[in-house]
Amino acid sequence: MTTTYSRITGLGFYVPDNVVTNDDLTQYMETSDAWIQERTGIKQRRFFTYGKDTNASMATAAARMALDRAGLEPKAVDLIVYATLSPDYYFPGSAFLMQRELGLEGCAVIDVRQQCSGFVYALSIADQFIKTGMYKTALVIGSEIQSTLMDKTTEGRNVAVIFGDGAGAAVVQATTDPEHRILSTHLHADGRYAEELYLKDPGSSREDHFINAGTADSADSSVVMNGNTVFKHAVVRFMEVINEGLSANGYQASDVDLLVPHQANIRISEYVRQQMGLPEEKVFNNIQYYGNTTAASIPIALTEAYEQGRVKSGDLICLAAFGSGFTWGSALIKW
Ligand code: UT7
After folding, report:
1. pLDDT, tens digit, 9 for 90 and up, residues 223-281
2. Is the CB of 198 under 6 A from ligand 1?
3. Of 50, 90, 276, 303, which residue is most buried, by most CB within 10 angstroms?
4. By its UniProt entry, which PANTHER family does this protein fall under (predicted)?
């Protein structure tokens, strides 16, 4: 009996055209280009334009690029797995809206709320459904509009300078070729740290309707992050989950051709690179240009790496993420 695996056959991304530099942010808050670059590596990010971009429209653009590169019409898709922490509506999820924009009524959609690890979780879900034979072609999405969720004053500056907007997509298809496939995925979470990086409203567990309760203007309606705690856990969990993927497949760090980490902070990526003993060219970073785009960061980075010829047939590619939840995960791919 032949074994079914899954394989990424197309990649795409979309970022809004509104470039916001570090200097631009100094209009709203006390910060500086030097502080932001030194602490995070970020030079600029993209913020969406109201009336032009939506979470689902950005995902649709990324999906169309990925489908085109896979040589597929949208109608080939039988599963959408869509990761975002910033959906267009409270419900239903943005997967439904993108499905409608692509004219894919009837196919299965799954919304994933795993924040910075969202794309790795979504990829894993697609991989499992394809390996069981239930679906053949999945669209895996990470898309975020975070610029409207942040307090862009000095009070919220530790969050507001980091996050950006954008979307990335991967087409994942069934294959019987054991040499070019997703080798394994590894997922973890620890809800004890849920409030270390979270957005409280619009939450349902309160006495009154959240707007009646006067929360719309309060700090509860902006992202809150304990950056130091997140940072300390991130560097440990990144290493753990990368090593878990490598050892599950009999590989060592030196076998990795390209690590594409979630673009959280360049200092986190650099720490992981040094721990793994990898040269700089084996770790892909583009946080400089897009900031931290949460669920979108890995598919945007993977697409750019592919476009730059840094993802080649037969390469061992490692994706790894850590973020709010806490969640963390990795995917090892033989390209
Ligand atoms: O995507 C996954 C989730 N997120 C992450 O992985 C982020 C992980 N954490 C981080 O990247 C870092 O913790 C930050 C970049 C968020 C912050 O860097 P830090 O080195 O941990 O700085 P800090 O929070 O310890 O703040 C140091 C100082 C403080 O001033 P005082 O108290 O020392 O006077 C802050 O008020 O820097 C100040 N500060 C800023 N100054 C200028 C905080 N944010 C800013 C800012 N501009 N934007």
Report:
1. 999 999 999 999 999 999 999 999 999 999 999 999 999 999 999 999 999 999 999 99
2. no
3. 303
4. 3-OXOACYL-[ACYL-CARRIER-PROTEIN] SYNTHASE 3 (PTHR34069), BETA-KETOACYL-[ACYL-CARRIER-PROTEIN] SYNTHASE III (PTHR34069:SF2)
Residue-wise DSSP of 143-184: EE--TTSS--SGGGHHHHTTB--EEEEEEEEEE--TTSEEEE
- Alpha-carbon gap, residue 164 to 146, rounded angstroms: 6
Could you tell me the distance, in angstroms and rounded to a whole number, from the CA of residue 226 to the centre of ligand 1? Answer: 9
Taking CA 185 as the corner, what is the angle to CA 270 and CA 145, rounded to the nearest 5 degrees?
65
Q: Is the CB of 31 under 6 A from ligand 1?
A: yes
Res. 209 pLDDT band, cuts 50 70 90: confident
DSSP helix/strand/coil, 82: strand
Report yes or no on whether pTM surpasses 0.85: yes
294 vs 79: CA distance, rounded Å? 22
Q: Given the DSSP bridges, would you call strands 137-144 and 181-189 parallel, antiparallel or unpaired?
A: unpaired
In the chain, the domains with their CATH numbers are 5-178 (3.40.47.10), 182-202+215-334 (3.40.47.10)
User: What pLDDT digit, counting tens, does each position of 286-318 carry?
Assistant: 999 999 999 999 999 999 999 999 999 999 999
